[in-house]
Amino acid sequence: MMESISEQFEKTVAERLKLLRAERGLTLDALADLSGVSRAMISRVERAEASPTAALLARLCSALGVSLSVFFDNQVKQASPLARRADQPLWRDPDSGYLRRAVSPPGIGGGTGSTVDIIEVEFPAGAEVRFPGKLSSRSQTQHIWVFEGEIVMTVGEEVHHLSAGDCLFMHVADVHGYRNPGAVAARYAVVVNLGS
To answer: pTM score, two decimals?
Structure first.
């Protein structure tokens, strides 16, 4: 059963990536140049032969000019200003194990027109996500608001140690990585301004 769920996820990601790339008129080579992800890897993801990591998806979404929430949004549904918990999309990063819940109703490109995405993250103890090189877009900003545990964010040249109650603002493109140095899972919100 778990295998079929994983296969379905990879198929959904593959179809969505192909659609967004086609809508923007980008070849595999052009998306590879914009994202810093190899042409071969993009091709494998589009054929549902590889499960993308958080770092890889972040680079592709940045190059395509969409947030992860917009990337995962099922645009077949009628837009609603209400997102019930049971209907909020979940995604687990295969590398770090972090669990991402898209809390807010779909914004730009998803029907409501909102320019803000709200995401809830459960980040396992000891987990880390690194972005090799800079993400391409500086049009998106975000706040990280920690509810439980701790995380360390590397933004630009600065390293920020965040604990419960702390909130940090940054340009998405300036994030180099983040990790949970604690012995327990961290839980936090990411509030993304998608720009216009």
So the answer is: 0.75
